[in-house]
Amino acid sequence: MQKRNLFFSCEKVTVTLLRMAIGWHFLYEGAVKIMIDGWSSQPYLANTSGFFSPFYHWLASSPAIDLIDWMNIIGLILIGLALFMGIFIRFSAAVGALLLILYYFAYPPFGMSLSSISRESHLFIVDTLLLESIALIFIIFYRNKGYGIDHLLGYWRKRNKSVETETVDSRRKAIKDLVSLPLLGLMGWGAWQNERRHGVDVMSGATITVNRLDLSELKGALPCGKIGKHEISRLVLGGNLIGGWAHARDLLYVSPLSKAYNTERKIYETLKLAEAAGINTINIGFPSNNLLQKYKKVTGSKLKVITQISADVRDDSKLFDNMYQAINFGVDIIQIQGNWVDWMVRDRLIERIGRLLNKIREEGFTAGLGAHTVDSLIACRDAGIIPDYYMKTMHHDNYWSAHPKENRVPFEVDGESHLDHNKFHDNLFCLFPERTIEFVRSATVPVMGFKVLAAGAIQPEDGFKWAFENGADFICVGMFDFQIVNDVNICLDTLAAVEKEKIRKRQWF
């Protein structure tokens, strides 16, 4: 009998602790939302991407969003108090489970929204919201609701013992069932002291928002052009920052810093933000193919992938290996990487470039030709090797770290970095801007300009205008997530200005 009583006592304590822990989570989340000036659920609702997103978007655009916010806050607080103190347990657990399920399907941990979860860590399908909702459903149907005010009131209604025994038992019951009140006071006081000392907890659900918040600031839709059979946005996402190649001159920490910032989850968020902002294409180095393939499979993304391939100049039998690997990754467009084109022209292996372009086309793919040194593209053109589009570094040299013209040597990009300030040191990518402009003006296929900001040395307003004005049909720009919306707006403004002022020196291809 004693063992049985001990079991029931442990059972009650366990259920009580579970119920109170979930209750405190509800209560705290509701209280934090009150403490944040101007808090609104609008960004959270507006940026959902699950299959119920139309419902959440409708709520976000509702004129009654303020009422929705207060209903959310009051609901969280009342559910939290009821669960913590054990009042109307079945009802509060049911309403709490329903609310958690609504949160869960706003950003379900699968499909398109897997990469934009704005809460704490999760596993595929299972996250804390799902676990808490299952726990509340368990509480609804489990016969033992633990200690609390409901239990105490039920006991008093059913008492049928002597007055003396009633008094003793009632006191014992009251102590157990009301123990949550001093605990609530103690935890509330601790949270209040923490808020006074450190401010609002930045890791609460009320303070974490997804990075698509500023999409509302977009000025319009990006225009597109065609490369082969593909509709490409005029602004293309570059892959260097995602891959960790920052071209930071002699700042050794920048590339590791960009890699540390761009975790796989952050890269997914960046790609989704870019797509939502109207950028429909990314140009990547070959090592990033694994990640892009995974991203597209996980999210169902339609992002077009231009992949840069190498050409093994040491072994002619391996010339097409990288191309076939790219095809197996499911890429959309294949481009011979600029440094390989430069090296093959420099080493007088230009016929390999023609063979590789022809093989890409034989496989049914649009074939691009990249270069850092304009001499490479001129040599290919003069040899009758014309791609479906060119990918050329396009930026002026009017910035501090550009070394003098008289010291520039063709093909030095991706070559030796000199300690002499007057020579190349990962600092200049369009070595001869005037010759590049001349070549681009004569090109009869589309031109995608890249490194248009000289790896961060030129302001976007300046670099974008220079590239479009001088003949680029598309520009490829490496962007962190927090730069995307601003860069899209700058691109829109630049394209409008170029058209209005009629300053473009080449027709659009």
Summarize the structure in words.
By secondary structure, the protein is α/β, with parallel strands linked by helices. It has two domains: 2-147 and 179-198, no CATH class; 213-217 and 232-501, TIM Barrel, CATH 3.20.20. 51% of the residues lie in helices and 9% in strands. The chain is built from 20 helices and ten strands. The chain has helices at 2-35, 42-46, 53-61, 65-85, 89-106, 128-141, 149-158, 163-177, 180-198, 240-243, 254-261, 264-276, 289-299, 321-328, 338-346, 350-362, 374-382, 433-442, 460-469, 484-501, and strands spanning 224-227, 230-233, 235-238, 281-284, 304-309, 333-336, 366-371, 389-393, 447-450, 474-477. The strands form two sheets. The protein has an eight-stranded parallel beta barrel with strand order 3-4-5-6-7-8-9-10, surrounded by five helices. Helix 1 (2-35) packs antiparallel against helix 4 (65-85). The longest helix has 34 residues, at 2-35. It is elongated. The protein starts with a helix and ends in an 8-residue tail after the last helix. The model is unreliable at 206-213 (pLDDT under 50).
Write a concise synopsis of the structure shown.
With 509 residues, the protein is α/β, with parallel strands linked by helices. It has helices spanning 2-35, 42-46, 53-61, 65-85, 89-106, 128-141, 149-158, 163-177, 180-198, 240-243, 254-261, 264-276, 289-299, 321-328, 338-346, 350-362, 374-382, 433-442, 460-469, 484-501, and strands at 224-227, 230-233, 235-238, 281-284, 304-309, 333-336, 366-371, 389-393, 447-450, 474-477. The protein folds into two domains: 2-147 and 179-198, no CATH class; 213-217 and 232-501, TIM Barrel.
